Amino acid sequence: MQRTSLVFAIALGFIAATPVAGQEDAEVRGIIERTNDMLAQWYAAGEIDSVAAYFAEDAWQMPPNHEPLVGREAVRSFWSQAVGIGAWTFDLDAQDVVVSGPIAVERGSFSLAFEAGSGSRIPSFQDRGNYLVLWRREDDGVWRIVWDAPVSSVPMAQAE
Amino acid sequence: MQRTSLVFAIALGFIAATPVAGQEDAEVRGIIERTNDMLAQWYAAGEIDSVAAYFAEDAWQMPPNHEPLVGREAVRSFWSQAVGIGAWTFDLDAQDVVVSGPIAVERGSFSLAFEAGSGSRIPSFQDRGNYLVLWRREDDGVWRIVWDAPVSSVPMAQAE
User: Residues A50-75: what's their mean pLDDT?
Assistant: First the structure.
């Protein structure tokens, strides 16, 4: 019986240690979904240092109809100003995630409601569309956004 | 001498068969750059069947301010109509390519000049911006576009 238990324990160990591709992908997808939820909360709360912590140092974020934000500091600076003029309510919905080693590519849909604060030169607006995000598992084990490309699907004339 | 030659031949065989990460990445980047050049030529020439052949069956293309094109047939149909109303001159410039196994993610910049033909309801326009593309090496060895997210960097008011 002892011997059987040992074999069973070894077998369990192998099962635990052997990566199952599907399970791993689902795990990464879960991490991405939870990070998206946190990001949406932080954008809404104006907690931009927390947002920036999930962008890689060499990140590129590409806001529609705006020059790209290159580097974590550019992301932090842009959004620190942006949350000063109003409230940004994002909904981020991961629709498909492809994982390969230390990178993952997410395709999702988003909606955005901007509610202008007093004195904002930008009027309130709503937007929606789809996005691609390249994620990278960095040396500290955290999955961060490397490249972020949101594409508005709202026709030009209605976009503002 | 025969023995030395044999060892040398085996060593060469190993060198040829051992993938060197940097070289492989450069090779994939080269394939992507050549495909981009061909795509630009085919868009300009209206050869949309050739364009569509480099999109995966399950491709998503996300034209700015338009609903996404889902599937190769949607890409073919959209562009077949589009090239009927004018000339589309793309310049696609891969700036960074991340390769991991059978996928690659490309970050690039683009410019687009649309010259309206007679009877087009859309006036001539120019656009420029940045994009992310997810590429996949498919079973036939061809790298195809799976997801394509181009983001205009032209401010709203100037975009048309």
Answer: 98
**Which residue in chain B has the smallest CA separation from A132?**
B149
- Supply A109's token pair: 């849909």
pLDDT tens by residue, B75-104:
999 999 999 999 999 999 999 999 999 999
CA distance B150 to chain A (A): 7
- In single-letter form, the type of residue at position A6 comes to L
Determine how β-strand A55-61 pairs with β-strand A143-152: parallel
Distances, alpha carbon B69 to alpha carbons A53, A61, B34, B51, B91, in Å: 33, 23, 23, 14, 21
Token digits of residue A105? 């590519």
Identify the residue whose tokens are 């061909």. Answer: B38
Interface contact A151-B102, CB threshold 8 A: no
| Radius of gyration (C-alpha) of chain A in whole angstroms | 20
This complex has an ipTM of: 0.86
pTM: 0.86
